[in-house]
Amino acid sequence: MIASTRRPPSPETLALLETRRSVAAAGLQAPGPDAGQTQRLLTIAARVPDHAMLTPWRFIFIEGAARAEIGARLAQAYRDHNGHMPEEKREKFAAIMGRLFPAPLAVVVVSRPVAGSAIPAFEQELSAGAVCMNLLTGAAAMGFDGIWVTGWAATHQAALTILGVGVGERVAGILHIGSAKEAPADRPRPDVAALTTRWSPSEP
Ligand SMILES: Cc1cc2nc3c(=O)[nH]c(=O)nc-3n(C[C@H](O)[C@H](O)[C@H](O)COP(=O)(O)O)c2cc1C
Questions:
Q1: Which domain holds residue 145?
Q2: Any idea what the CATH number is for the domain that residue 158 is in?
Q3: Which of 30, 115, 122, 165 is such that its CA lies 20 to 30 A from the CA of 200?
């Protein structure tokens, strides 16, 4: 008999994938991953399909005292760029920016497609998305909770400058990672059967 390299099934991994659920950043608190866990998490995050091994992504960490500082800068930038908004509304959103990083760790996944590569930028961006998902799944496997968000802080040029996102780069996601204050209820999940067709040669 030829020896098989088939990996044994992992019921624990399957259960995690079948039950993982995002937790809003405001619902996350300490503890977050320690230095060793964070390093391991990054190694897991970087273990994604990457056509032609371009590594078209990088990471920015926001943790500790930097969270309040960057929040204050984002809040001010929000005010500066939304002078046209009614003050009450502007202040409401500026306050949200000020509290944008409540979780112990936020990882900004920066997509940086290699220009002029034979690999389409879209494929490179998908690889950055895979990095985000691996971070979320890896964090869940370590017993942490998290969420993948974007929004104003991930898209407005003023915010990108504050984050340190350069020309030719985009934020694929901000991953907030910590421990859930409360276990989240599930949300409705897609009906996969309704989303699936089976190709047949008789169809155009
Ligand atoms: C690229 C991307 C950006 C997202 N941005 C936000 C966001 O800014 N705010 C938000 O509440 N959810 C955002 N979401 C949705 C959440 O990450 C998540 O899908 C949702 O809370 C449902 O969680 P679950 O299906 O993982 O349990 C985004 C999702 C993706 C893939």
A1: 22-66+104-182
A2: 3.40.109.10
A3: 122
Instruction: Please choose, from the candidates 151, 185, 190, the residue with its C-alpha nearest in 3D space to the C-alpha of residue 27.
Output: 185
The answer to whether position 145 is within a domain reads: yes
Average pLDDT over residues 172-199: 97
Q: Which residue's C-alpha comes closest to atom 17 of ligand 1?
A: 148
Distance CA 69, CA 165 (A): 17
Q: Domain for residue 1, yes or no?
A: no
Q: Kindly state whether residue 36 falls inside one of the protein's structural domains.
A: yes
Q: Are 57 and 130 in contact (CB under 8 A)?
A: no
123-169 pLDDT, tens digit per residue, is: 999 999 999 999 999 999 999 999 999 999 999 999 999 999 999 99
Atom 22 (ligand 1) nearest CA: 22
Which atom of ligand 1 lies at the shortest distance from residue 147's CA?
Answer: 17
pLDDT digits (tens, 9 = 90+) for 22-42: 999 999 999 999 999 999 999
To which residue do tokens 């915010």 refer?
A: 159
- What's the domain count of the chain? 1
Residue ranges around ligand 1 (CB below 6 Å): 21-22, 147-151, 173, 187
* Residue 134 in domain: yes
Residue identifier of the C-alpha nearest atom 9 of ligand 1: 149
Helix (H, G, I), strand (E, B) or coil at 202: coil
